[in-house]
Design goal:
Low-confidence stretches: none
Largest sheet: 4 strands, mixed
Number of helices: 5
Strand order of the largest sheet: 1-6-4-5
Shape: globular
Oligomer: single chain
Number of strands: 6
Helix content: 25-40%
Structural class: alpha+beta
Mean pLDDT: 95
Order of helices and strands: EEEHHHEHEHE
Distance between the termini: 10 Å
Strand content: 25-35%
Length: 164
């Protein structure tokens, strides 16, 4: 039986260069460069999955969905990977209290899709949109992200014992 609460942190980064469109939090970002990835490259969902698995002490995204396993080639992160992760977290006795995600990018603007992302994530997590935060920042031109070579996301999640 799960007791108390758990906090998890996740991070993901992908190099630009894959086929467009870019997907963030299950939302297509029009006009943004694609990323190189095994799945659909949704860095927000990937960071969230790592945070969920970490909080529940269930490993990480690479353990659950190995990138060298062809079944994950082109996988829909929001429709396939996240539900499988949430099922494992639920089976371990946990449910989502709230999440906080940050997109770190130089080449992509999140403002136009932020609310859509919050709604999609809340629906997928079975929680209220008020429990989902999505933010964005840049690296002020520093490093690979500042040079426009890629995009990253970080996520923090709070899990509470599941009811029932």
């Amino acid at each position: 039986m799960a007791v108390g609460m758990r906090v998890g942190y996740g991070f993901d980064v992908h190099r630009h260069g894959g086929a467009a469109p870019l997907v963030l939090g299950g939302v297509l970002v029009e006009g943004a460069p694609g990323v190189e990835a095994t799945s659909d490259g949704d860095i927000v969902v990937h960071a969230l999955i790592d945070a969920l698995l970490g909080a529940a002490a269930l490993g990480d995204i690479g353990t659950m969905f190995p990138s060298n396993d062809s079944q994950w080639e082109g996988a829909d992160s929001m429709g396939v990977l996240l539900p499988a992760c949430l099922a494992a977290v639920s089976e371990a006795g946990w449910s989502v209290s709230n999440i906080d995600c940050t997109v770190i990018a130089h080449t992509v603007r999140v403002g136009g899709v932020r609310e859509k992302m919050r709604i999609r994530l809340a629906d997928a997590l079975g929680t209220d949109v008020g429990a989902v935060s999505v933010k964005a920042t840049t690296t002020d031109g520093l490093g690979a992200i500042g040079r426009g070579e890629g995009i990253a996301a970080a996520a923090v999640v709070v899990l509470i014992p599941a009811e029932g």
